[in-house]
Amino acid sequence: MTRRALLAKVHIGKKSLCWSDDEYRDILRARYGRDSASKLSNAQLFDLCAHFARHGVDYKGKKKSKKGAYYNIPETTPYYHQKLYILALWNKLGWKISGIDLRCKKQFGVDKLTWLNDQYSLQTLAKDLYSRCQKRGLDPTPHGN
Fold first, then answer.
1. How far apart (Å, rounded) are the C-alpha atoms in residues 39 and 33?
2. For the whole model, what pTM was predicted?
3. InterPro entries recorded for this chain (predicted)?
């Protein structure tokens, strides 16, 4: 583990334990004779992380949300079915669902797919995704798996 990662773990531990800056520095002085984690050796940083773990710090990251997160398009939205098809193609390609809005913003100047109401733009997007699916050997038909 790099020194930078160890320092990050130390600060995550400090935050997780809700220690004030004074409490944190008192522990550093008592255990290592230093008042800053940046002045500790790598072995001391490992030891400090282990000390935090004994006090209940869990260094496991948050569970990541699934790639196919839900994207809401109201049924009253113009071109509702075409937008659903675009989302299905996007998901089939294995891309993060949040990327569809970024693509719409960059390509069409509209912040969200839901707000994209130009038929030509929707067709352009659908055709591009369709061809990308074909190039990858994926079935781009609406009911294909």
1. 10
2. 0.53
3. Phage_Mu_Gp16 (IPR009363)
